[in-house]
Amino acid sequence: MVTILPPLASSLHRRVTINFSLPKSKRIQKHKQSQQKQIHQNKNSKTSLSYPRSYPTPLLITQKSYPQTKLEALDRVIKELEASAKNGIYIGIDIFASLLETCCEVRSIEHGVRIHRLIPPNLLRRNEGLSSKLLRLYASCGYVEDAQQVFDQMSKRKNISAFAWNSLISGYTELGQYEDALALYFQMEEEGVEPDMFTFPRVLKACGGIGSIQIGMAVHRHVIRLGFSDDGFVLNALVDMYAKCGDIVKARRVFDQIGSRDPVSWNSILTGYLHHGLLLEALVIFHRMLQEGYRPDSVAVSAILSRVTSLKLGVQIHGWTVRQGMEWNLSIANSLIVLYSKHGELARARQVFNQMPERDVVSWNSIISAHSKDPKALVCFEQMENAGALPDNITFVSLLSTCAHLGLVNDGEKLFSIMTNKYGLRPIMEHYGCMVNLYGRAGLVEEAYSMIVERMEFEAGATVWGALLYACCLHTNVEVGEAAAERLFDLEPDNERNFELLMKIYGNAGRMEDMERVRRMMVDRGLDS
Fold first, then answer.
1. What CATH number is given for 427-528 in this structure?
2. Record keywords: Nucleotide-binding included (predicted)?
């Protein structure tokens, strides 16, 4: 008799006994019965066979996380290029050009600078296309000094296209350096580089920026000579230029010449009319835009809302913005606050402000200014600080004006201190004017005078001295009033209001001779009506 351990059973330490003394046929039958009995026992047993858990076969590749953004992909490629350059591997021009295009697309100046470091200087000077792409990246990101340096190093600048010139002109224009943009345009002409359709819109924007109608008209003539007088982009720029330079008639004339108007055309003439205070004409254009299926942009709508004199019309435009889904555009919502507060609808102004999904400093300034005659302005400022918004000079002008109007001297002094010490804002003329008005209205004329002569870091203007003179008139302070009037007679020799206030101060003090003397001064200056 032999005892064996079958493979499966051995793991459970179960023994199977086979009796070899039996005939072979009976031994086989006995063995089968024994196996069936074992299987039956296994089914009823609490112990089950334990097989190792199967897992999928891992792929034989390195698992890398794919970049989620273009910036991540760009960063990875540049790191590989930096490693290649370190090992002396040649990098082709097409690779540099493609990467600079990507940097410009995602506006990543940091990656652009790293690529610039990898480009051999000789290659950059010789290759116009590569230099132009790098120049455009610097200029579009506001790094015009670096763009100008790349431009100056281009070896064959006279023979290149207008692309590089346009990029640099655009960079200067976007930064508000209009004189530099125009100087580059004139240099372009001197070097014989012919402008294209992309040159003129940028140059005309610079003309509008400095308000030079003469240069603008000269550029217009150049446009006609080169055959771009039918180009829509150029015509839109001409409308904007003439409107900003003060000739709204020519702006309208060019607008009427545009065969196929686009939203830019309509918004340019609309904002032009508003800029000149021609609200009725602007509303006519607004109506025509809607009739022809165009929608004014947020800048135009904001300008209309801030200028409408009729509350009813303003409410109608507000309703239109709601239907168009433009109500919560930041500039439009800010203009609505101004609209309602200007017409005394403070509840509506607060409702708009409270429902705004986002706010900027203009929003806070608007709601503070709306409460300029109410202590709630100080509550709004406290909420502004709690919200983490940073106040600016306009914020404190409104707050100090409120304190002056309400006679809140302590609050005004505290705000003036917070402005300089906490937020690091240097007081401007308007701030000092508000403080002088604050002290003057409260009868603290000497403190107001001290603010001017001892604490101001620059010469006081007519607004500040005028506030002091008015305070002297309210409280009949002859000595300080004379000092204020003397300064005002130099600053505003033709302002009869100053003479009248000084006469009133003398009259209240019973100094009739001095009052008559001031009246004769007015006659001598041709101010006596």
1. 1.25.40.10
2. no
